[in-house]
Amino acid sequence: MAFPLLSLIVFIPAAGAVVLMFLRNDGAVRWTALGVTVLDFLLAIAVLAGFDTTTHEMQFTEMHPWVPALGITYALGVDGISVLFVFLTALFGWICVLASWVAIDRKMKEFMISLLAMQALMLGVFCALDLFLFYVFWEAMLIPMYVIIGVWGGDGRVYAAFKFFLYTLAGSLLFLIGVIVLYIEGGGTFDILALTAQDLPFRVQSWLFFAFLIAFAVKVPMVPVHTWLPDAHVQAPTAGSIILAAVLLKMGAYGFLRFSLPMLPEASVHYSPLMLVLSALAIVYGGLLALAQDDLKKLVAYSSISHMGFVTLGIFALNLRGLEGGILQMFNHGVTTGALFLFVGLIYERTHTRSIAEYGGLMKAAPVYTSFLALFTLSSMALPGTNSFIGELLVLSGGFAANVAVGAVAVLGALLGAAYLLGMYRKVALGPLRLGARSKVYDVNLRELTAILPLAVLVLWVGLYPKPFLGIIDASVNYLLEQVHGGSQ
Amino acid sequence: MSAVALLQSALASLPEIVVVIGACALLILGQIVPQGRGHLLVWGSVAIVLAAALATFMLANEVRPAYAGMFIGDRFAAFFKALFYLATILTFLLSRKYAEIEEIESSEYYVLLLFALSGMMIMASATDLLSIYVGLELMALCTYVLTGFLRWQRRSNEAALKYVILGGAATAIFLYGVSLVYGLTGTTRLDQIAAAAAGNPGDPGLLLAVVFIVAGLAFKVGAVPFHMWLPDVYEGAPTTITAFMSVGPKAAGFAVILRVFLNPLVVASDAWIIIGVVAIVTMALGSFVALVQDNFKRLLAYSSIAHAGFAMLGVVAGGADGIASVMLYLLIYTFMNLGIFSTIIMMRNGTFSGEIIEDYKGFAKLHPGLALLMLIYLFSLAGIPPTAGFFAKFYILVALVERGFVTLAVIAVLLSAVAAYFYIRIVMLIYMREPEGPFHPALTPSVRATLAVTAAGTIGIGLFPAWFLKLAQNSVFGG
C-alpha cells in the first residue's frame, strides 16, 4: 500500500485540533497551531513535488471501503486542478494562524481549534474522490465557519453567521438530493470517477445541473445569491475573511469543474450561455457595488464577487484558454484577495476602523505596508506583470471566443476594477497623513512580513513566469475539455 | 395449545417475561428498601433490563412465531427491543439525581418505566392487531401516570389529564378501526388481513378501517393532525419522562406502523399517499412552529414532531431500504435526542429550571466541554455531517429517491433547512452571548455516563455508519 500522504494532509490539522483541546496556555496554543499548519504545508509541497504533470489521472490515490452497503468509499486523490488548491489551502493555513496571532483577543484555543478543523475539512473537499465523502466535508465546514464568524466576528456577527449558514445550507441540501439522484441513476456508486464516466440522459442532466448550480452558485457566490458574502466578510475576523476569500469561494468553482462539467457535459454546454450572462452580470454588478463602498472589507468583498465572475466566465467559456484562465484566476484570486483581507485586518488592528474616509497618507506612516498593499492592489486590478493579468487575459480571450458581447462586458468590468482599486489606494495611502481613530501606526513587524512575503512572491511568480502553474493544470484541463465536448456530441 | 407450543411461545417472549416479572418483584422490593437507598432501585432496574437484553440477544438468531400467530420473536423486534433497552437504561441513569431534585423519588417510578418498556416490547413483536393493542395500552397507561408524576405541579397534572383523555380517544379510534377490519375480513392477524386485502383491493370499507388505524398510530408518534397533545405533555411531564417518551414510545409506534403498513401485500394499496401527506404536513408544522418557541422542552416537542415526519418518509418509501432507513433513523434519533435531553435534565438544579432557551446564554464561556456536547447534539438534530443525524436523513432520502419520490425528498430537505434554523439558534445563544450568571449543572457520574454514551453514538454512527447500517438492513422483517 502506498504511503497515505493525502490522508495525512487532511487529518494532521484535525489531530492538531484535538491536541489543542488539552493545552491550557495561549502561547502553547499558538505555537502548536503554527507547527501543525507549517507541517501540513510542507506535506502539501511534497505532494506538489511528487506530482506528475504529464497525466490527467488521479494521483496519490487512496481507497478504503467506508459504508460498503451503499457503495460509499473513503477515497482520496488529486489531479492537476485539485492539487493546486490543496497547496493554496495549506499555504493559507499557517498564514491564517499568523494573522490571528494577536488579533484574536479572547478564547484563543477555541479559535485555533475551529481554524484547524476548518482546514482539515477544506483539504478534504479538494482531495475527496467519493461524492458522499465530498459532501460530508463540504457540509461539515459550515460548523467551524459558523462558529468562527459568530463568535469572533464584529458587532453584527450573529446575523452574518446565520445568513452564511442558512444560505449555504439551503444550497447544499438541494445538492444533496442531486447527489442521491446521481447515485441512483449512476448505478449505486458514489465514486466520482465512475460517475463521471456515466452517460446520463439529457433530461436528468438538466435537473442535476440546476440542483448543483444552486449549491455552487451560493458558494462562489454568483449574483443573485451573493448577498451573504458582504455580511460574512465584513463581520468575520481577519482569518475568517481570508479563509472565505482564499479557499471557500473556490469551492463553488471547483464544484463546477469537478461535477457539473464532466458529469453533466451536455447540460453544461446547453446552459453555458446562461452561465456566461450570470458571470458577466457578477463582474459588472460586483464592480459597481465595490465602487460605492466606504468600508475597506466591503470593498474587497464586492471585488471578490466581480473577480469570481471572471472565474465562472472562464469556466463556462468551455474552451482551453477560458478554462485554464479560470482555474489560474481561482488560484490568483485566492492569493491576491487573501492578501488584501490580510492587509485590511492588519490596518484594522492598528486603527480600529475600516472606513476609507478616515484614512489618508498611510504611505508616510507605514511605507512597507503601503508598498505591499500597492503590489496586491495592482495584482487585483490585473496589471501586467502580476498574476491576475495572466489569468484575466486568458479568461477574456476564452470569453471572447465563446461570446463577444459577454467578453466586451467583462472588459468593462476589468476597467471598473481599476477604478475602485486605484481609488481605494489613493485615498488610503496617498495624500496628507490621516490615521483614523488612532494617532500612532507602526509598520509591519516580522511576523506579519512572514505572512505577506510568500503571497507577494506568488503574485510576481505567476505574473512573470506562469508556465509551471499552467503546466500543473494543463493535462487535467485538456482531459476535462475532452469529457465536456466528447460527451456533448 | 399443547404444552410444547406453550413452552416455545414462552421462550419466544422470554424478554417480556423477564421484564414483567422483574417489574413485579421490584414493586414489592421497593416497599422494603430503606430510605436513602434509592440507588439500589436504579441498579435493580438496570439489571432487569440487562437480563432482558441478554435474553433478546440469545434468541435473536432465529425467527420464532408464538401464541398462535399473535406474537413473533424476529430480528426486527430484536432491533427495536435493543433500542428500547438503550432508551430505558439511559432514562434510569438520568432519573436518579433528577428525581432527588424534583423530590419524586419512589419505586413506582421505576416500576412504571419497566411496565412501559414491556408494553413497547410487545408492540415491537406483535403480529396481531389485538396484541398490538395490548402492548399499546400497557405502554400508554404507564406513560399517563408518569406524565403526572410531578404531583404538586399544576402543569404536570394538566399534561397527564390531557394525555389520558386524548390518548383514550385515540385508542378508541384505533380499536374502532380494528373492529372494522375484523368485520370485513374475519381476522385480526396481520398476515391474514394482508391476504384478504389482496383479495379485494380498493375495498372502501377496508380503506376506512386503515384510516382509523392510521389515526390511532399517528397519535402515538405525534404526527399531524394528531399532535396537539404532544407539546403540552412534553412540557408538563418530568423531563426524564419527556426524554423517554420522545424516543421509546415513539419508536414503538413506528415499529407497529412498519409492521402494519409495510406488509408486502398492503404496500400494493395506495395507503402510502395518506402517509406521505401526513409526513410532509407533520414536518412542516413541526419545523415552523418550533421557530417561535422559547421553552426548550416545547421546542424539542415540535422538533420531535418534525423528526417523526421525516421518519415517516421512510415508511412512504417502503421496501427493505425504506424499513431499514426508518429503523436506523430511530436508533440515531434515540442517541441524539436523549443526548440533548440529558443536558437539559442536568441543568435542572436548585431554582434553575433549565427549560428556558434564553437561560443557556453564554453557556460555552463557563462550561466549554458541555457546550461542545450540546453543539454536537444540536448539529446532529439539524442533520449536519459528520454527525449521525446527517446519515439518518441521508439514508431515508436515498430510500425515497430510489423509489422515485424525488419531489418528496426535495420538500423534505427544504423543510429540514427550516428546522436547522432553530437548532442553530440555540448554538448561537450558547456560544455567542455573554452569560448572566454561573451555571450549576448537576453532573453526577450516571449523568456523565449518559452523556458519554449518547455522544459516542452521535459521533460514532456519523463517522462509522457501516456497522449500524448493516445491522438495520439485516433486521428488516420478511427478508
UniProtKB/TrEMBL annotation, chain A:
This enzyme's EC code(s): 1.6.5.11
TM region(s), chain numbering: 6-24, 31-51, 71-104, 111-129, 135-152, 164-184, 204-222, 234-257, 269-292, 299-318, 330-348, 368-390, 402-423, 444-464
All residue ranges annotated as the NADH:quinone oxidoreductase/Mrp antiporter transmembrane domain in the record: 128-416
GO CC list: endomembrane system; membrane
Membrane topology field: Multi-pass membrane protein
GO biological process: ATP synthesis coupled electron transport; electron transport coupled proton transport
InterPro entries xref list: NADH_Q_OxRdtase_chainM/4, NADH_UbQ_OxRdtase, ND/Mrp_TM
Presence of the UniProt keyword Membrane in the record: yes
Recorded GO MF terms: NADH dehydrogenase (ubiquinone) activity; NADH dehydrogenase activity; ubiquinone binding
Principal localisation: membrane
Keywords assigned: Membrane, Oxidoreductase, Transmembrane, Transmembrane helix
Location of the protein in the cell: Endomembrane system; Membrane
Recorded family membership: Belongs to the complex I subunit 4 family.
Name of the featured protein: NADH-quinone oxidoreductase subunit M
Species in which this protein is naturally found: Borborobacter arsenicus
From TrEMBL, chain B:
Lineage: Bacteria, Pseudomonadati, Pseudomonadota, Alphaproteobacteria, Hyphomicrobiales
An example Gene Ontology CC term for this record: endomembrane system
Organism: Borborobacter arsenicus
EC numbers on record: 7.1.1.-
Keywords: Cell membrane, Membrane, NAD, Quinone, Translocase, Transmembrane, Transmembrane helix, Transport, Ubiquinone
Membrane topology: Multi-pass membrane protein
Reaction it catalyzes: a quinone + NADH + 5 H(+)(in) = a quinol + NAD(+) + 4 H(+)(out)
Protein name as catalogued: NADH-quinone oxidoreductase subunit N
Entry's localization field: Cell membrane; Endomembrane system; Membrane
Similarity comment: family membership: Belongs to the complex I subunit 2 family.
Protein's job: NDH-1 shuttles electrons from NADH, via FMN and iron-sulfur (Fe-S) centers, to quinones in the respiratory chain. The immediate electron acceptor for the enzyme in this species is believed to be ubiquinone. Couples the redox reaction to proton translocation (for every two electrons transferred, four hydrogen ions are translocated across the cytoplasmic membrane), and thus conserves the redox energy in a proton gradient.
All residue ranges annotated as the NADH:quinone oxidoreductase/Mrp antiporter transmembrane domain in the record: 126-416
Broad class of enzyme this protein falls into: translocase
Main localization category: membrane
A molecular function GO annotation: quinone binding
Segments traversing the membrane: 6-28, 40-60, 76-95, 107-126, 132-152, 164-185, 205-229, 241-261, 273-292, 299-320, 326-345, 366-384, 404-428, 449-469
Subunit description: NDH-1 is composed of 14 different subunits. Subunits NuoA, H, J, K, L, M, N constitute the membrane sector of the complex.
A Pfam entry, by short name: Proton_antipo_M
